[in-house]
Structure to design on (324 residues):
């Protein structure tokens, strides 16, 4: 028995699987396609929940924005249209800058940084979400974010005027400050947006580069390693609180395992998916010192702007993170 099966078996025994419970079914909307490791991790989470709750709770995953559009998932959970869902955490930065810190350029750029930042963010985010009757279950990072273009980018000036795909407000500001013209496009719509000329450059992970087959529509990847953003899975607190304590324990045990497994999957992806892109003909270019300096200057400006308006709690996250 491996460690994971052991933990699950212990959880299953501790909740007394012999008692017959009325099985409950939960629909779970997620934004990304089945080809994405986050979705694979969530499908395993759902199967772990079934095991740890002795079949008392079954979660049906609806991927790629098929049940609710990405932008509607949080409110669907909040309003109890669904009990559970996944979304890109920094999308909530318009509610509070605390949610967006993992997308602040060059604040946390490695998995170690990202783990420390999540530790610092978690208590504040938990409280902010609780005020909306939401509870975080687990958060998993994407690999570091790199630059995708149709030509080599040597300096920030080379980005000037490019139609740029964005996925949140921070990336939109970053692109604007770099002189590019951002447009919001959801991940499953990337190939179409490039094919129709709506966009011609983007910043995202090697995972999304590979799952959207970036080689079909661009030629260069520059690993600027600018930030490590996370997806979060949240549950409606009222619906969670209404469950039997044993079922709650099964969900929490499965969530802890999913978080650990997700971070490992993400680490494995970074290199593997960069290779997939290379194998498909994309040129991987190490960023020039000049490009990095220019992008970091934009990050500095964004951080100063963020700190000028952030709440005391959010500023404390940054101080905590920088102190450790
Ligand atoms: N992929 C997602 C979010 C961050 C990432 O690496 C996307 O591009 O939408």
């Amino acid at each position: 028995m491996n460690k994971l099966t052991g933990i699950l078996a212990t959880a299953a025994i501790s909740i007394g699987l012999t008692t017959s419970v009325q099985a409950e079914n939960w629909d779970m909307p997620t934004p990304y396609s089945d080809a994405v490791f986050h979705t694979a991790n969530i499908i395993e989470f759902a199967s772990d929940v079934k095991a740890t709750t002795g079949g008392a709770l079954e979660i049906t995953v609806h991927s790629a924005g098929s049940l609710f559009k990405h932008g509607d998932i949080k409110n669907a959970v909040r309003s109890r249209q669904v009990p559970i869902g996944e979304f890109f955490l920094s999308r909530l930065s318009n509610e509070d800058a605390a949610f967006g810190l993992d997308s602040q350029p060059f604040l946390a750029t490695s998995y170690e940084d990202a783990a420390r930042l999540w530790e610092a963010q978690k208590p504040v985010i938990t409280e902010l979400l609780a005020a909306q009757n939401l509870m975080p279950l687990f958060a998993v990072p994407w690999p570091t974010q790199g630059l995708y273009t149709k030509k080599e980018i040597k300096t920030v000036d080379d980005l000037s005027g490019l139609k740029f795909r964005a996925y949140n407000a921070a990336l939109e500001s970053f692109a604007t400050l770099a002189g590019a013209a951002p447009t919001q496009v959801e991940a499953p719509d990337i190939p179409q947006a490039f094919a129709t000329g709506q966009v011609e450059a983007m910043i995202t992970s090697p995972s999304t580069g590979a799952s959207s087959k970036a080689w079909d529509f661009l030629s260069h990847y520059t690993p600027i390693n600018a930030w490590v953003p996370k997806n979060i899975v949240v549950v409606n607190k009222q619906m969670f609180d209404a469950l039997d304590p044993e079922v709650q324990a099964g969900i929490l045990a499965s969530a802890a395992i999913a978080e650990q497994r997700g971070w490992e999957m993400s680490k494995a992806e970074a290199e593997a998916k960069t290779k997939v892109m290379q194998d498909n003909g994309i040129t991987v270019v190490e960023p020039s010192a000049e490009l990095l300096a220019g992008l970091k200057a934009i990050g500095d400006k964004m951080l100063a702007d963020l700190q000028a308006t952030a709440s005391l709690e959010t500023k404390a996250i940054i101080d905590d993170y920088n102190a450790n």
